[in-house]
Structures are given as C-alpha cells and as structure tokens.
Amino acid sequence: MVEVVEETTYVRHHKKKIAYILSAMRHFAVELRGSGWQVEYVRLDDPDNSGSFTGEVERALKRFGPTRILVTEASEWRVQGVIRTWTESLDCPVEILEDDRFIATYEEFRSWADGRKQLRMEFFYRDMRRKTGLLMNGDQPEGGKWNFDAENRKPAKADLFIPSPMQVVPDNITQDVLSLVDQQFSDHFGTLKPFWFGVTRASAEDALEHFLKHALASFGDYQDAMLEGESFLYHSLLALHINIGLLDPLDVCRRVEKAYYSGAAPLNAAEGFIRQIIGWREYVRGIYWLKMPDYVDQNFFGNTRQLPDFYWTGNTDMACLRAAVSQTREEAYAHHIQRLMVTGNFALLAGIDPKQVHEWYLSVYADAYEWVELPNTLGMSQFADGGVLASKPYASSGNYIHKMSDHCKLCRYDVKRKTGEGACPFNPLYWDFLHRNRGKLSSNPRMAQMYRTWDRMNEEKQSDYLKSAADILARL
Ligand SMILES: Cc1cc2nc3c(=O)[nH]c(=O)nc-3n(C[C@H](O)[C@H](O)[C@H](O)COP(=O)(O)OP(=O)(O)OC[C@H]3O[C@@H](n4cnc5c(N)ncnc54)[C@H](O)[C@@H]3O)c2cc1C
Ligand code: SF4
Description:
By secondary structure, the protein is an all-alpha fold. Helix content is 52%, strand content 3%. Strands 1-2 form a two-stranded parallel ribbon.
C-alpha cells in the first residue's frame, strides 16, 4: 500500500479529504496485518517514496522479485491508464482484476446504452431494481410505482428536530495523519480540525446504523431542503465510506430495504435512498466509462468565465452561496441540492468554464472521485455534455432556493426583486442564461415553456434583465 504525492496533489484536495483517505488506508493496513497478511506500507513522508504508483511498483519489484502482479482496476480513467502501461513496461506479468464493489458491470451498462437515443437514469434504475430484487414484488415495484420523488420535496422548517451525524474521536493513527496533513498541505483548501469522520469499516458500519436509526425515516421528505446552519439535515454522509470501500453499496441498500419492511422507514424514504445508490450512483459510473476520455473536455455552451474567488473564500453577500461554500470549507461536505441548485446553478447561470467547475468539485468534497464527480458536475449540473445525462439544464432563478430554504431571509439581496440594485442575482442571471443560449436550448421541448414566458415579456423588461445580469457578471 502506498501513499503517493501524485494522488494527494493532482488537484488541491480539501485537507479533510486527504486526512480521511490516508487514515483509512493506515487503519486498513493494521487490520490486514492483524488478520495475518503481510503488508508493505509506504508512507507519504518516507524518504525513499518515489511519489507515483508506477515508481512504487517498480521499487517493490526490485525489493521482492514477485512472479506476478495482481491489481484491481482503477475507478478513474487517469489511474487505469497508468496501470495499463504496466503490462508493457514492467518485467513481470500483470493481471488486472475487476472492481466488484459495483452492481452493474461495464458490459451491462454498455449493452443497456447500446442503440438508445436517450440514456435516462430512470429506465436504467428500473433494470437495477429488477436485477437486485430491491423493493420488488415479483416483477412489480413495491407500492405500485417505481419512483416516489414527488413526495420528496418538502422544505424544512427551522424548528424541525434534526439529528447530528455520528462523530468519531480521532485515535493515534488519525492524529499522526492530521499532523502530516497540517504540515504538508497547509496551503490546500479547507479546515482540517475538528476531524470526526470514521476511518474504519467498523465505524462506517456504525455510521450506517446511526443513519438507519435517526435519519432514514425523514430522508425522503427533506431530501431537497436547505436550512441555514444545518449542514447535514437527514442526509446519510455515507458517500465517502461507500466510495472508498468501507461500505458495500448493495449491503447498504439491503439494510435500508429491511428498515422499510420492518416499519422503521416509509417507502418514499427507502425508495428515494435506494434510487440514489443503485440508480444514480451506478448510472453516473456507467456514463463516465462510456464517454471518457473525451467527456472531461465537453463544453456545450462554450463557457470561459473564471470561477469566482468566493468559491474558495465564501466571501459573498449571497447568503445561499455563502452557506454552501462555508460548510464545504469546514466539513468537506455539502448535500446534493446545495451542490446542484446553489453552487452548480450559479456557475451554470454565470457561464463559468466547466473544467474549472469540475476541478473545484473534485477538490473540495471528501467523497469526490472523478468517476462519480465528473458526470454529476459536467453532465448533471453544468449541462456541458449537451444533454447526455440530463434532459434539461438544472437552471433556476432565486425562487427555487427561496422555496426550499430559509437563506433568503438572511440575504442582502431580495429574492422577490427581479432586476436592479438589490435584486437576487439568480433572477436576472437566469433569464440572461436562457437568452444567451437560445440557439442551443430552444429546440428542447422541456425548455419551451420558459422561452414562451421570455417572449411574452415586453422589450423594456427583457432589457432590464439583461442589463442587470451584465452588471452582476462584470462585478464577479
Ligand atoms: C455537482 C455535483 C457534484 C457531485 N460530486 C459527487 C462526488 O464527487 N462524489 C459523490 O459520491 N457524489 C457526488 N455527487 C452526488 C451527491 O451530491 C453526493 O453523493 C451526496 O451529496 C453525498 O452525500 P450523502 O452521502 O449524505 O448522500 P445522501 O443524500 O445521503 O444520498 C445517499 C447516497 O446516494 C448516493 N448518491 C446520491 N446522489 C448521487 C448522485 N447524483 N451520484 C452518485 N451517487 C449519488 C451516494 O452514495 C450517497 O451517499 C455530486 C452531485 C453534484 C450535483
Ligand atoms: S436572495 Fe438570492 S442570493 Fe440571496 S439567498 Fe436567496 S436565492 Fe440566494
């Protein structure tokens, strides 16, 4: 096992993300040794560490003279490319094993996608329900419907009881890692302490149990809600554990299904949660491997604007963005709607270069790995793939944030004001986005209603919107 600088710095990851991964690795090495394996572990600060996977495999070949190399395929295109070179470059046979932590194989996804005009998640998800049997009665979905999303859009009220996520006190191994990260990555984004993520399989299991007991029942109802000062609401915070391999996604879903059948959670919560994992998670992975390596360069709208500084500092008067960026800096976490409808929506409306947006998301979240982050960012949130993943852009005015959160009450801007000084920036930027990209979007039937609304406005109103948007963009 090797801690290589190439991996800790290919983007400037959040300090908590680096600490989480290194500490989980070190704990895993201890567990393996405890169960009788020999583990050669190279630490980041080992003076002989070459800093790359290839360099470390070459060093290990010299040290141990093995007869073959067995390696599990990488989840990212970049690293898989490195591994593939080994079959040629190393003087030792290399066998690449399948990563069995996913429900759909690449072949399954490819054959599902083959010949389809549109690759919509909903239909892939139904196949995954049939394949796993999760929430199925024979060949029929539990409750008579595949998807209960319509019930999952309640705004949260400030007096709601919201459980805290499970917090783990760092042990000596984690403390060592925290010191290392503090020394070597002090100029990376994010706050390192307090650090409370579980870093072992046992603590990830505890976090799952904690979620099942305290939050799952309301997960569905408040899935899209946002509240000032509440970073987690009823979300699970399990993505970081599942993505690193401390939890098995299918097992997590079976436990959620069991909670539903035992009466501990309603169907809208259990179905909503299971859909995120066997639907969205598997689907974005399928898209990633189907569309890479070109996918990362997609830029459907031709956006070139620089990512504003406040994505790093949180220093903005827009209360919704300030809240999302500040908690991202503190926790290396924001939930889906904050990622999609606040930071993502703003970048989309403002026409930010999608590659910069992608690199931001890849750096700042503890659960971020390119195979899952890139399709979510470039496809779902920025529509930079022109609609491979989403049937229309997730663009909205301030009204959506106002409906789903209490941020607007604390904002310097007025969400009801459409244009001019003090108007919520999302309002003019929304119409400017539609106007600017008319050539690319007006033929999309799901956008037709919005273009009709724009066309019904008189010229003066339209020009007020465009002028306000230009003022905001000039100030970014
Ligand atoms: C712009 C953008 C970037 C994102 N980047 C990442 C990323 O780097 N890594 C990542 O794991 N997820 C990413 N997501 C998806 C989603 O936002 C996170 O999985 C989720 O917020 C993680 O928090 P949680 O564990 O509390 O999730 P919960 O809300 O509790 O959801 C349960 C689980 O479902 C899965 N899930 C939910 N939505 C998605 C999705 N759209 N794609 C894949 N899995 C999903 C996750 O495993 C998650 O743990 C991104 C979404 C957007 C819009
Ligand atoms: S008024 Fe606009 S900028 Fe302010 S919190 Fe509401 S949506 Fe965000």
